[in-house]
Amino acid sequence: MPITDKVAAAKQLNEFLRGVIQHGGFKLKYRITVDPPQEENRDWEQPEILVEFAGPDSPLLLARGAELMRSMELLAMNALRLQSGEHEKLCFDCGRHRALRLEELRTAAGVAAEKVRATGAPYAFAPMSSRERRMVHLALRDEGDLHTESEGEGRERHLVVYPKDYKPRTAPSSRPSSNRR
């Protein structure tokens, strides 16, 4: 479901960000774009509202895997009352971090696919956000010989790439052998 009034949402977002930046003492500027043009690296993400940050405190936003920027994005989603299925409608970026991360995920998906094909064994990614897991799922969606699943709970949720017809090995029996001497 699209954001019904994007201009009103952008204004609300502007007020929210102005307060966060001012009260947080950040040296940041931002630009809010409604219906941003689709970029080549953003073919899987088509936000209805894009917020791009710049300024001397940009490294703070991007530290630890852009943890602060992602946290601000989550708070903004809550301020706009976006449901979890609507999170792709809003996108925060700084220094093209998001586009670079998407390219990194595409490359990692390709490497994982090749490892699974070569070994026949599943490949498990490290835990990642639901958005990043979605990007990997989408990167591999047309690979007919593979399938992907998200596994784990909470902060340990991760993505696993499997050969299409993968069957886990059965565990060896723990019964004692009758051929013992």
What does this structure look like?
The chain has four helices and six strands; from the N terminus they run αββαβαβαββ. By secondary structure, it is α+β, with helices and mostly antiparallel strands. The longest helix is centred in the middle third of the chain and has 23 residues, at 97-119.
Could you outline the blueprint of secondary structure elements for this entry?
Blueprint: H1 6-24, E1 29-34, E2 49-54, H2 58-79, E3 90-94, H3 97-119, E4 123-124, H4 130-139, E5 146-151, E6 158-163
Parallel strand pairs: 2-3
Antiparallel strand pairs: 1-2, 4-6, 5-6
Total DSSP E strands: 6
**Strand coverage percent:** 15-25%
Strand order of the largest sheet: 1-2-3
CATH class of the largest domain: Alpha Beta
Total of domains:
2
Number of helical segments with 4 or more residues? 4
Q: What's the overall geometry?
A: elongated
What's the quaternary structure here?
single chain
